[in-house]
Structures are given as structure tokens and as C-alpha cells.
Amino acid sequence: MGAFAAALVAILANSFAVRWIATATADPDSADHLGATVIAPVVEESAKAAAILLLFLFRRRNFGGLVDGVVIAGFTATGFAFTENILYLGNAFGEDQEVGATGIGMMTAGTFFVRVVMSPFAHPLFTVLTGIGFGLAALAPRGKRLRKVLLPLAGLLLAMGMHAA
Asked: Could you give the dihedral angle defined by the CA atoms of residues 115, 120, 123 and 126, in that order, rounded to the nearest 10 degrees?
């Protein structure tokens, strides 16, 4: 679910928001920076959380606690990260081909180092915070509706914060 639905939503929403900001402010560099530090964390973590929420609501009998939340969030985010990394690497390779870059200075090499070597588990780490919130909500007693809402939201906010940092 993370590899398809969340990635598609994030690509479309991130692109739209960055273009809108660039047009509204006439400053594409600031729009890219704002997109990476503010918009992407909110959009991407919300999209991955929506996938977890769907499983939490419609497969509730299979969502029993903390471990389920961590595993579901981890798989959702890993699929998302895999798809996003492929897209980033493909874009970098395309840019390298346009300018004729070769060797270690290629954008592809830099992208590979940052996305695959330095931060392959970043998205799962962020989204697992949301999964922990859902897992704790699954453990909440029957009459505690507020906990079942606030715990996943707290996890989502923490995930967004980690992603932004």
C-alpha cells in the first residue's frame, strides 16, 4: 500500500504544493526548501498514516497491538521509501544524461549515497512512530475513544517532526 497509494499521493501533492508556492512567491529556491522541510513531512507522513488507518479500521481483528502497529507501519514505509528512492535515482540519472556527467561527481552517485547508503531506513523510522500510536490505540480499553484518536495523532505528529528534522 505504501509503495503505490501513499507514494502516488505524495508525489502529486508535493509537486502541486511546491509549484503553487513557487508561483505565489516567485522564488523557486525557497519553494523547494519549504517543500522538503515542511510540505513533504506533512504530506508523506499523512499518506502513509492513511494506509495504516485503513488497516486499523477495516482489518481490526488483525491489528491487535504495538507489534502489529510497528510491523504494518514499517512495511508501509519501506514500500514507500523503495518507490521514492527509485524515482529519485531515476530523476538523477536522467539529469546526468542530459548534461553528460560521468564518474563520482554524477548526481546519480550523490543521490545513491544519500538515499541508499546514508538513510535507507529513514521513512520506516518516521512512520513507525505513527504505527506505535496506532498500536497503543489498539490496546486502549473499549470506552477510551479519545485515546484511540489522540495516540495515533501523537504518533503522526512525532513522525512529521522527525521527518522535518
From this structure: -120
CA–CA separation, 30 and 18 (whole Å):
9
- The answer to whether the CB of 83 falls within 8 A of the CB of 3 is yes
Cell of 13: 501533492
Q: 99's torsion region: left (phi>0), alpha (psi -120 to 50) or beta?
A: alpha
pLDDT of residue 3: 62
pLDDT score at 149: 94
Cα–Cα distance for residue pair 139/64, rounded to 1 Å: 7
**Cα 21–26–32 angle (5° rounding)?**
50
Quick one: DSSP state of residue 103? S
In the predicted structure, residue 117 carries a pLDDT above the cut 60: yes
Grid cell digits, residue 162:
522527525
Residue-level length of the chain: 165
- Tell me, yes or no, if the pTM score tops 0.85: no
Largest CA distance in the chain: 63
Write out the DSSP string of 52-63. HHHHHHHSGGG-
